[in-house]
Design brief:
Helices cover 55% and strands 10% of the residues. The chain is mainly alpha-helical and 168 residues long. The strands form two sheets. The protein has a two-stranded parallel sheet with strand order 1-2. The chain has a two-stranded antiparallel sheet with strand order 3-4. It starts with 5 loop residues before the first helix and ends in a 6-residue tail after the last helix.
């Protein structure tokens, strides 16, 4: 299921509300009212994101015996200012926390895998492509396997969780 991008959906309204707050005189009751509107809008974005996370995490937990996730370093990923807004909008940390406690409730297994070289290693033969850029979505390994970066990473994550990694 795709990320619904909650922040982007309300981005125009948030900008308008923020401009309204900044135009008001500091300390005035009109500024207080405008700030309240802005806060309610931020709360709406937060609540819709949490609702989506709850529904998706419950669905995943009920359908699966074991769930494997990549233990991403979100703080390091947020240093890329071109991607920071999208990464924050996804709310990955909160989603993984929900998966954690819901997996305990339902008696399921949640496995967190280290993210090292998951998209760079060929899941078939184990060859590592160190020349990959983030913009490279498809690549060919030394043995001629054409790999989709995301599918390859998912296969590597699954194999790491099961303990069946291929070494070059």
């Amino acid at each position: 299921m795709d990320n619904p991008r909650h922040l982007y959906k309300y981005q125009h309204q948030l900008r308008k509300a923020q401009r309204s707050v900044s135009r008001k005189k500091k300390g005035s009751s009109n500024r207080r009212k405008a700030a309240g509107k802005l806060a309610r809008l931020h709360l709406k974005v937060s609540n819709t994101r949490k609702d989506f996370h709850h529904k998706l995490s419950t669905q995943l937990i009920r359908e699966s015996q074991a769930i494997v996730v990549e233990q991403l370093q979100i703080q390091h990923m947020l240093k890329n200012h071109k991607l920071a807004k999208s990464i924050s909008d996804a709310g990955w940390h909160g989603f993984v926390q929900m998966l954690g406690y819901k997996s305990k409730w339902y008696g399921r297994e949640l496995v967190k895998v280290a993210p090292h070289h998951t998209s760079q290693d060929c899941w078939v033969c184990g060859w590592r492509n160190t020349d990959l850029k983030l913009s490279d979505r498809y690549w060919t390994c030394s043995n001629g396997h054409v790999l989709d970066r995301d599918v390859n990473a998912a296969s590597n994550i699954r194999n790491k969780a099961v303990g069946q990694t291929v070494s070059a």
